[in-house]
Design goal:
Blueprint lengths: L6 H13 L6 E3 L6 E4 L4 E11 L11 H17 L4 E11 L5 H18 L2 E9 L4 E11 L14 E5 L4 H10 L8 H11 L5 H10 L4 E4 L4 H12 L2 E5 L7 H10 L3 H7 L6 E5 L4 H12 L3 E8 L3 E4 L5 E3 L12
Parallel strand pairs: 4-5, 9-12
Antiparallel strand pairs: 1-2, 2-3, 3-6, 4-6, 7-10, 7-11, 8-10, 9-11, 12-13
Helix pairs in contact: 2-3, 2-6, 4-5, 4-8, 4-9, 5-8, 6-10
């Protein structure tokens, strides 16, 4: 059997089964984006890793080394933010072709330093190796108070679904990069390209959400709104209906979609790499939570759906309900 037959998440399940049950010090282990480990005191230790591989995650000619450094750090910081935590220490495994210039490495680390300093993270080590292409593998530690930890497994029927910022911007930026005829000079184009190349992890927002102790589950939008909401549903044993007219699409994404003849709703639902936070909260407290987060961070928060007993559906403005299939990023599924 080939890994294309079971996909990335099927492979993770297989590895999890092979490793066996976690030990007593593991609160959350294989299967989540972040491992949660017991530590001394009233805080949990958080540990995550994520890799950027040339030709898979990025095109070398489309992203500067400075942007790559920032993005590699940001996507890991986003994972810690989605647990309600604070990142602390970062290690970098860097694999490079031998012909890489030292100036390229200098700029990559400038980007790493820029992103980590903004998040209060120290770069404390790593590893270097030769490779046919550029690979940046980040290992990040963090911490969270036990009472503020948010997992993907707490959503309950009746909860509302909320998301920070806007979704689809990164997908619009990627579409511009992949279209050689596209105009990338306008302000709207620059905005979505920035969202794709140097995303902003919602660290302050994650902390604000966690401190309220209102949210019941949370993830970041890395694989796509539908795909990541699907992870919450699977872990929580529930379903979801999303409201198509409630999904927050930025004016820039709408403008780029019109210029390229694309449907921005597809990007909002399935493109991924927005690194917004998607979370759930009891229906009677959802608006209060959104207001509290907006007041503290100035980041808009939108209610985009609700948790149901089972199934995944998209409700159109007409009231028609369409079934949703997770269509976000999966490294090994046939495409």
């Amino acid at each position: 059997m080939r890994i294309t037959e079971i996909g990335e998440f099927g492979l993770i399940d297989r590895v999890k089964e092979a490793i066996g049950p976690p030990g007593a010090g593991v609160v959350v282990g294989i299967g989540d984006d972040v491992a949660v480990l017991r530590a001394r005191g009233d805080k949990y230790l958080l540990a995550t890793c994520d890799i950027q591989v040339e030709g898979i995650h990025f095109l070398k000619e489309a992203i500067s080394p400075y942007q790559l450094g920032r993005k590699a750090a940001a996507i890991n910081i986003s994972d810690i933010a989605a647990m309600g935590g604070l990142p602390t220490y970062l290690l970098v495994s860097l694999a490079l072709p031998k012909e890489t210039t030292v100036e390229y490495v200098d700029r990559l680390y400038e980007g790493l330093k820029k992103e980590t300093e903004a998040a209060g993270v120290q770069i404390v080590g790593g590893n270097m190796s030769h490779s046919p292409g550029v690979m940046v593998d980040i290992f990040l530690l963090g911490e969270v108070e036990a009472e503020h930890l948010l997992l993907r497994s707490g959503a309950r029927p009746g909860d509302k679904v909320l998301v920070t910022g806007s979704v689809g911007d990164s997908g619009a930026g990627l579409a511009l990069l992949l279209d050689p005829t596209a105009d990338r000079t306008g302000e709207e184009a620059k905005q979505v390209l920035k969202a794709h190349l140097t995303p902003t992890p919602r660290l302050k927002e994650g902390r604000a959400i966690a401190r309220t102790r209102i949210a019941t589950s949370m993830m970041d939008v890395s694989d796509g709104t539908v795909s990541d909401m699907g992870h919450i549903c699977e872990a929580s044993g529930v379903g979801v209906q999303l409201w198509s007219d409630a999904l927050p699409l930025s004016p820039a994404t709408r403008a780029v979609a019109e210029a390229l003849g694309k449907d921005p709703l597809e990007w909002a639902l399935h493109s991924g790499e927005d690194y917004e936070l998607i979370f759930t909260a009891p229906a009677d407290k959802a608006e209060k939570l959104a207001a509290l987060v907006e007041e503290e961070t100035t980041t808009p928060v939108t209610i985009i759906g609700e948790i149901i007993e089972e199934g995944m559906n998209l409700v159109l403005p007409s009231g028609e309900s369409l079934p949703l299939e997770p269509g976000g990023w999966d490294h090994f599924r046939r495409r």
